[in-house]
C-alpha cells in the first residue's frame, strides 16, 4: 500500500519537542525540506543506477548460470533437509558459500550479487558493527549496541549480530545508505514488531535474516539518520519496504505472515535483486509499483531469482507495474489465486521457473492482468521461456514480437525450469556457524 510521504507541518511542530538530541530541535519546515531534498538526491542516484539495456542484464544473468553448470554439476535434485557436505547450487552462492573461512571474509559477499542490483556493495567500505542488544526502546535516540543504532549511521557499516536474537521493532527501522545487514552466524528474527524501511537511500544489502509476523507501526518520532529525527505516519506492516531507493540486494531471507506485503518495491526504486529467499504463509506477497498513475516507476528494474515461493501463499509473486522484471529460476510450488501479474504495461521476462498450479481449476493460470481489457494488455511484453509448467499451470504471454522493447534474438535462454529445485535448494536463511562451511 502507498502512504503519504510528507506530513502536515503542524503535527511536526507538536512532536518535534520529543526528538531532542545533541543535534538540537528541528524546526517543522526543516523536516519537510529534509525529505524533499532526500527524495531529489535519491531520484538522481536511481536514474544513474537505471540500466538502459535491461535485456543485456538478463542475458548476463543467464550466462552466469550456464557457466556454473558447465564447470560443475551439483547432481542432486531433492529438496528434503540436507545434511551432506556444503553445496552451493547457484552462481550467487558459489561466490561465497562453502568456504571454511567465510566468517573471516564476510565482505566477500559484496562481490556476489547478480542481476539488476549488480554493483551493490552495501557496507563494503565501512567498519564492522556488532549488534549485541536486541532491544529497541528508544526509536528517537537509539542506544549503541542496538540494530537501530547501526542502521541509521551516516558512514558505511557492515552490521553483524553477536548471537541468536529476536528483534521486536517498536517502530519501522529506517536503514540508511551504504549498509550491509549480515545475519550469518546467528539466527536473527525481525518479528512481531514493525518493519524494515529503505527510503530514499542507495546501496544496501540485506542478508540471512528471518522476517515474519510484522505489524503496522503506530507512527511517531523516529530517527532515520544521525542528524535527523522526524514524525513518521503509521507504517504499513510490510516485511521490507523499498521506497525511492536504488541498488538494493535482498538475499537468503525467510519471510512469512506480515500484515501488508512481504516486500514492496515502490516510488521509483530501481537496480534491485531479490534472491535465494523463501516465502511462505502470506496473501499479497510482493508489490513492484504501487500506483497506475506513478509513471516514475518506469525506471524500476528488478531481478527475482532462485527464490522459493512456498506453502500458504495466495497471490502477487509479484504484482508489477510500469518497469522491467526478470523473473528467473524461481520455484513456485504454492499459490491459491495466481503467481505473476500486474497492470500498467510492465515488462515481465519469465525464464526457467517452475510453476506448480494448485488443484483449484480456476487458478491454474500463472499470470493475471489486473483491471485491463485484452485490447490493451495484448501489447504488454510478458514472456515465458523455459518455464516448467506442472499440474496444469499455464502462462498467457503477450506483446508483439516487433515491439521496441523486445526481440527474441536479444534473449539468451535461461537454464530451464527442470533445474530449479537444484538452484533454489538452499533458499531462505541459512544456518551458518563460524569456523564451518556455510
Ligand atoms: C567442481 O567440483 C569439484 C569436486 O567436487 C571441486 O573440487 C571444484 O572446486 C568444483 N569447481 C568449481 C568451479 O566449483
Ligand atoms: C555511499 O557511498 C558512496 C561511495 O563511497 C558515496 O559516494 C555516497 O556519498 C555514500 N552515500 C551516503 C548517503 O553517504
Ligand atoms: C479458486 O480460484 C479462484 C480464482 O483465483 C478463486 O476466486 C476461488 O476462490 C478459488 N476457490 C477456492 C476453493 O479456493
UniProtKB/TrEMBL annotation:
Binds 1 Ca(2+) ion. Required for its activity. Pathway: Glycan metabolism; pectin degradation; 2-dehydro-3-deoxy-D-gluconate from pectin: step 2/5. GO terms for molecular function: metal ion binding; pectate lyase activity. It holds the Pfam family Pec_lyase_N. GO terms for biological process: pectin catabolic process. Keywords: Calcium, Glycoprotein, Lyase, Metal-binding, Signal. It comes from the Eukaryota. The keyword Metal-binding applies. Its cofactor is Ca(2+). It catalyses: Eliminative cleavage of (1->4)-alpha-D-galacturonan to give oligosaccharides with 4-deoxy-alpha-D-galact-4-enuronosyl groups at their non-reducing ends. Its EC number is 4.2.2.2. Residues 164-361 form the Pectate lyase domain. InterPro entries: AmbAllergen (IPR018082), Pec_lyase (IPR002022), Pec_lyase_N (IPR007524), Pectin_lyas_fold (IPR012334), Pectin_lyase_fold/virulence (IPR011050), PEL (IPR045032). SUPFAM superfamilies: Pectin lyase-like. Belongs to the polysaccharide lyase 1 family. PANTHER family: PECTATE LYASE, PECTATE LYASE 18-RELATED. This is Pectate lyase. The lineage of its organism: Eukaryota, Viridiplantae, Streptophyta, Embryophyta, Tracheophyta.
